[in-house]
TrEMBL record:
Keywords: Membrane, Transmembrane, Transmembrane helix. The lineage of its organism: Bacteria, Pseudomonadati, Pseudomonadota, Alphaproteobacteria, Sphingomonadales. The keyword Membrane applies. This is Extensin-like C-terminal domain-containing protein. Residues 64-242 form the Extensin-like C-terminal domain. Pfam families: Extensin-like_C. It comes from Sphingomonas bisphenolicum. The chain crosses the membrane at residues 12-29.
Length: 242
């Protein structure tokens, strides 16, 4: 009889503990909708477990992507479709100059809308916080090597086309801080100082936002830039972060 009572009490305690854990999980997830795969993407929310996949899923839905930029207050110009065949792009946007935002240099770059959406989240949630934490100064501009380029991967004559062929990628080369300091991937990736720590922080932070993030750790072809893209790999597709 006593044994049965102890067994019943243990089961009741286990059930109570399970209910408490379920309740805590529900409260936590309700406060962080970005961690759930079925909730709508909101660029005003912190980066969540499924933010990167939701950003990549915007490819093919330019209207939804631009609506997200509008709600987040991003100033941009939607570009006309261009290119042809494997190099056709239809959702490129160009960011307008904004005194409160990081400027792109050169300014004329026009990546796909999902890349721009990820770039803005990267700016707000990763790059500027890292710059303030490490340097005590914000980033003023980002120097890049471009976005759209009708070519195959590594410029080969055969094989798969690069994400650059549809403006679904951008190559980031350096960061200029408001105090005039420049941090470049080529010159500052190696080492133990602030610049190397900053570059690794922004590289790692990009991995939660882009389908592919390639840095000097990947190969020598990326010794001077970060390759960031929004390759479509399906809901359960792999993501690359090197």
């Amino acid at each position: 009889m006593v044994r049965r009572l102890h067994l019943t009490l243990r089961r009741l305690l286990w059930l109570a503990a399970s209910l408490v854990l379920i309740l805590l999980a529900y409260v936590w997830l309700k406060q962080r909708p970005q961690d759930l795969p079925w909730t709508d993407l909101d660029l005003g929310q912190p980066i969540g477990l499924f933010t990167g996949r939701k950003l990549a899923a915007l490819t093919g839905d330019a209207a939804q992507c631009r609506a997200l930029l509008d709600r987040a207050g991003v100033d941009y110009v939607a570009m006309e479709p261009g290119g042809a065949d494997q190099c056709r792009h239809a959702d490129a946007v160009r960011l307008r100059a904004d005194k409160d935002a990081i400027a792109m240099a050169p300014a004329a770059v026009a990546p796909s809308c999902p890349v721009v959406a990820a770039l803005k989240l990267w700016e707000w949630q990763v790059v500027q916080p890292a710059a303030q934490r490490i340097y005590g100064a914000p980033v003023r501009s980002i120097r890049h090597f471009g976005s759209y380029s009708c070519r195959r991967i590594y410029g080969r004559s055969r094989g798969d086309y690069s994400e650059h062929a549809t403006a679904d990628a951008i190559d980031i080369a350096a960061f200029m801080l408001k105090d005039g300091r420049q941090v470049s991937v080529l010159n500052d990736w190696k080492g133990e100082g602030k610049d190397a720590a900053f570059l690794r922080a922004v590289r790692d932070g990009a991995c939660g936002l882009f389908s592919t993030v390639l840095s000097p750790d990947y190969n020598t072809a990326h010794r001077d830039h970060f390759h960031l893209d929004q390759a479509e790999r399906g809901a359960m597709g792999g993501r690359a972060c090197r």
